[in-house]
Specification:
Oligomer: single chain
Number of strands: 3
Radius of gyration: 45 Å
Helix content: 55-70%
Strand content: under 5%
Largest sheet: 3 strands, mixed
Number of helices: 14
Structural class: mainly alpha
Number of domains: 3
Distance between the termini: 132 Å
Amino acid sequence: MSCRALLRVCSLFLLLLSFFCDCSWGNALSLKEYRSSILEALSRVESEKGPLKPEECAFLDEHFPPQLDVNTKSGEAVQVDNGSLLRLVKESRETDQGREALIAHLKALCNQISFVDKPIPLSEDRWRESLARLEKVFSAKEFQDLEEVKDPPWMVFLMKVLKELMEWLESHYGGTNVSGQWMEYVFYGVILGGVILLLLWIFRSLGPVGWRFRDLKIKSDLERKASGMDWQTLREESRNKGEKGAYREAIRFFFISVLMEGHERGWWVYRREATNREHLSGVEGSSESREALGNMIQLYEKAWYGHESPGKEALLQCAEWLGLIEAR
């Protein structure tokens, strides 16, 4: 083979080699350069509005080819696929929305590249270095004049009170030296007892009237007046309202007077915070009494909440139901 033929073969080989080989041999960007290119592209795209201009597209095509080699911090070359970015560049030439999508993509790329150093692990071989950094942080002005608190303030105050109490007991009831540490358990016991009482109060409030801790059903006149259960006055007020034609208020006064009268006579337990259904569930006696009170509750709720306009007949019907309850 002649020299000219050998030269042609070598030229063809070099041409094919440069075509098939990637640019990682000499054209790979550093991570810092790659991030700078992204920031520069982001600055240019954000500074304008509307479709991309030809000079902006030329800058992006030049700095972001389809396949771009970038060296990591460790020196290893990785190949970045810019296909998605170039598609957005193409869309940005045609629509205004394409520019916004391109900006979001560039910001996402910038956020993916971090230059924050990894924290030093707290291992034995690096403990001194980590400790030195911690001491440097805590030597700042913000951490001066701080004292280590072993116990919370409420515990310190409690122990102080208990100590004074034990000293007082020792001075009055003998000279035995008794430690006050056991008083902590008394304190926790008081807290636990308070929580139990709170739970009982909640269950009492949620349960039906018949389940709750009842007061005495029959009270003296003095106790009745002190508790505000003067049902005779309400009954008289209901009668006056009925004579004036205010049947809605008359039925309300009549219904409340019935609840108070039943409490005094021992038919049920009346509590102001209880609902009408809770009062109904606490009725003791025959089913006729419970049915009569239930009918009265329905009539009262329809009249008071505006579902019906009651008349004199409704007030007379309530009186008949009260007669059934008294008879039973």
